[in-house]
Amino acid sequence: MDKHIELNGLGWNDWFEQQAADMATDHIARVAAVDRDQLLLVDETHAFRGRVAGGYLHRHHLSQELPCVGDWVCLEKAPGDDVGVVRALLERRTLLRRKSAGDAIEYQMIASNLDYVVIVQSCHFDFNVNRLERYLVMVLDGGAEPCILLTKTDLVAPEVVAAQIAEIRSAGITAPILTLSNITRDGVDDLTRLLLPGKTYCFVGSSGVGKSTLINQLIGLEKLETKSVSESGEGRHTTVRRELIRLDSGALVIDNPGMREFGILGAAEGLGVSHSDITTLSSSCRFRDCSHSGEPGCAVHEAVQSGAIKREHLENYLKLTEESEFHQMSYAEKRKKDRDFGKFVKSVKKDLKLK
Ligand SMILES: Nc1nc2c(ncn2[C@@H]2O[C@H](COP(=O)(O)OP(=O)(O)OP(=O)(O)O)[C@@H](O)[C@H]2O)c(=O)[nH]1
Ligand SMILES: [Zn+2]
To answer: Taking the first listed entry, what is the main subcellular location of this protein, grouped into a coarse class (predicted)?
Structure first.
């Protein structure tokens, strides 16, 4: 049964062993990163590149059928060959996915084989139970265990945090709730205690809630760092992405760009719910693309003037949209700048503590 026991440190268990029993190949690896058609695979001793076999691509056309971060794959790799050819995916025990816009059967995979998904909200301005519910639905739909984490507790009074927890509970949400501050480090130990060796975690939530700061704390280093690359005398910044990280405790953490994007989309969708009055009014603005920040004939602005909508409510809306737009841009930029797969392989090896 435990043929592949050496993979346990990467999250392997009996459930996967069962899936692997009927597979034609014995060589199994986990997907640590995906960059379009390039894969970064890891097994017990190595991190190496992979690509999906042509035959597989021929037979599978939906995006959810292609490997995503966290997948276990069966591959062929000749000794001395540095690229593994993926022949099959093992069934996913759990997954995180979102529906592709306007498509009934296609899903966009975010990550798979997660044990826990930590839904992160900042108790400062990001807190929103509706959005929390949307994330919960997504997590439960994929079969992982949800956990709620409220960050930036240093920025609000303890009563505010207590009220937010009460609000979550009164919405009928029973998932565990943790609170922490990355500044005072209050609560960081409680979270660390939850991270078990050989289990896979991922953190989701809007941009700016403190996910990277937290993961840095967990790693204990300034990782996920922005590296300065000097090119033609100009300081250029390249974010070195690490997708599957093994903490010293042995817990596995997935932090990937898909997750970032997921955060934004989640926030944008959440905006529709928490600020539906504004989005509804938008249709009466003179300009179709009105940003409600001073254009003539803005119905939202008029509603603020007449007192029908609170000014803070609009300000909060503007702040959130601005953040998501900004983030989408910086995400696209990051993608462009982040194509150096070789460098990436190196950093992932380091993160997974492989030679
Ligand atoms: N006061 C306070 N600030 C924090 C805390 N955690 C993070 N921050 C700050 O909040 C900002 C955003 O933090 P990040 O860790 O980049 O947030 P993120 O969720 O990773 O955001 P993306 O990388 O955009 O997805 C940074 O300026 C952090 O220094 C916290 O607990 N308290
Ligand atoms: Zn307007």
So the answer is: cytoplasm
Q: What is the CA radius of gyration of the chain?
A: 22
Q: What's the ipTM?
A: 0.95
Per residue in 137-160, pLDDT tens?
A: 888 888 999 999 999 999 999 999
User: For the stretch 224-239, what's the b/e string if a residue is b when 16 or more beta carbons lie within 10 angstroms of its beta carbon?
Assistant: beeeeeeeeeeeeebb
pTM of the model: 0.72
Report the atom number in ligand 1 closest to the C-alpha of 214: 15
Q: Measured in angstroms, how far is the CA atom of residue 316 from the centroid of ligand 2? A: 15
Distance 135 CA to ligand 1 centre (A): 19
Domains, the chain, in order of start with CATH, read 5-94 (2.40.50.140), 114-266 (3.40.50.300)
Residue nearest to atom 6 of ligand 1 (CA): 210
